[in-house]
Design brief:
By secondary structure, the chain is α+β, with helices and mostly antiparallel strands. The chain has helices at residues 28-37, 89-96, 142-156, 170-175, 199-202, 205-208, 238-260, and strands spanning 24-25, 41-45, 56-60, 62-65, 79-85, 102-116, 124-138, 176-191, 214-217. The chain contains 7 helices and 9 strands. Strands 1, 2, 3, 4, 5, 6, 7, 8 and 9 form a 9-stranded antiparallel beta sheet that branches. InterPro entries: Pyridox_Oxase-rel, Split_barrel_FMN-bd.
Length: 265
Amino acid sequence: MGNSRNLEYPKTPINKVNRYNVRETYDLEQIHSIINDSTFVNVSFNTPDPANPFPITLPMVGIAASFEHPSAGLGEPLDVYVHGYVSARMMNLSRTGDKKGLPVTISATKVDGLILTLTPYTHDVNYRSAALYGYANVVTDEAEKLWAMEQVTNSVVSDRWRHTRVPPIPAELSSTAILRVSVVGGSGKIRVGGPRDEKKDLDQEELQHSIWTGVIPVYEHYGEPVPYKTNRVKDVPEHVVAFAMEMRNRNESYAADAIADTSQD
C-alpha cells in the first residue's frame, strides 16, 4: 500500500503563515477540527459604507460541513455554515454584493495552556488557531437550509436537533438566514509543549533555583447540566449528560497531552 497524504490548503500570499512557521499547519483536518471544536467562530467582513472604514467582526455559531457530500470527513474540502437574523447587515451584503459572494474571514482559537518561563520574553501559550477565507452566500434551497440548521444546532450540543421541536415553523424559517461560505483557503497555528527557555537563562543557576517554571493547563469546562425553573422533565436527557461529560474529559485530556508533546522542541 502507498503512503496516504493528508489534504492541505495550498500556500498563497493570503494564507501563508509568516511568523513562528514551525507551528503552521495547512492540514484540512486540523484546521476544520479547530473550527468545529469552537462554540463560536469570528466572522470578519468589510462594508461598502464610506462612513465606516473599519472591518466588522461578529461572533457566530458555525460549522465546517458539506451539504453535497454529507458523509465527508474533516480532512476533505468543506464549506462553513453560519446562521443569523434574516435582515442582518451581513446577510444583506451577501445578497447584494459580488456574484461570488461576500468575502469573509472565519477564525477561531482554543487556548490550552499558559507557559511560564524564566523571563517574560519567553512566556508563551499552548493554543490552536485557524483562519479560513471564502465567499459567503445566503442559502436559498429549503432542503439545504434545514440540513444546515440541523448541523449548526448539533455543533453546539451533539444530537440536540432531534430532541427538540422540529422542523421549525414557517415564521422561524423565514426569520433565520443561513450563510454558506465557500472556502478558498486556510491556515492554522498550533503550539504544544512546555517552557522553552533560552540557554543564557538556563545557564544561570540562581535563576533556576529562584523562579518557578511550568504550565497552567487551560481548557473549557463543561459542568453538570442544570434544569431551568420552567423544565418539567425529571431526568436530564442522556444526550445532554453524555455530551457535557465527553467535552469536559476531552478538553482536559488535550490540555494535558499538549504539555507532554515534545514535537516542537
